[in-house]
Recover the amino acids of this structure.
C-alpha cells in the first residue's frame, strides 16, 4: 500500500468547506490502495463560532490517532499575540494592533517556519524522520502549506 502524507490545516472536527476535501481523501484513499497520514492542527470547537479558528489546541504535544482509514497527527496550536487579544477582548478593541501583528505573521511564515501554522511543518518533519512516505500532498489555503510540502519533500527526498 502506498503511503501519502497530507498537510491539511482545516480538518474535522473543525467545520469548514475546506475540511471536506482532505477528510474525503482520508476516508476514501484506502479503497485505492493508499494509506493517508493527515497532519492537521488540534481543533476544539469550544466556541462554536469563528473564534474556534484561533482558539488554542488541547495539548502542547502532537496527538496521534490511528484509525480504520489511516493516521491523523494533530499538531499543537498556540494562538499568536493578535489572536489572544481577539479571544480576550473581542473584535472591537485593539484592531489596528491585531492587524499589524497578523500582517507580520502572514509575511514571516513564508520566510521562516514561524507563525501559527508552523506546528504542522514541525509535526510532519518529526513524522518523516521515522517514517517513509511515497509522496506529500498539501491542501491549499493556507497557501503556506504548499511551501511546507515542498520544503519537507526536499529535506526528506520525497515527492511533494
Amino acid at each position: 500500500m502506498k503511503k501519502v502524507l497530507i498537510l491539511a490545516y482545516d480538518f474535522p472536527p473543525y467545520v469548514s468547506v475546506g475540511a471536506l476535501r482532505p477528510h474525503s481523501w482520508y476516508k476514501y484513499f484506502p479503497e485505492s490502495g493508499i494509506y493517508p497520514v493527515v497532519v492537521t492542527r488540534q481543533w476544539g470547537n469550544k466556541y462554536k463560532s469563528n473564534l474556534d479558528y484561533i482558539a488554542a489546541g488541547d495539548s502542547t504535544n502532537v496527538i496521534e490517532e490511528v484509525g480504520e482509514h489511516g493516521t491523523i497527527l494533530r499538531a499543537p496550536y498556540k494562538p499568536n499575540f493578535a489572536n489572544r487579544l481577539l479571544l480576550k477582548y473581542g473584535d472591537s478593541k485593539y484592531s489596528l494592533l491585531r492587524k499589524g501583528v497578523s500582517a507580520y505573521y502572514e509575511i514571516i511564515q513564508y520566510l521562516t517556519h514561524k507563525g501559527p501554522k508552523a506546528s504542522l511543518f514541525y509535526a510532519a518533519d518529526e513524522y518523516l524522520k521515522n517514517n517513509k512516505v511515497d509522496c506529500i500532498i498539501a491542501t491549499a489555503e493556507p497557501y503556506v502549506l504548499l511551501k511546507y510540502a515542498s520544503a519537507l519533500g526536499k529535506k526528506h527526498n520525497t515527492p511533494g
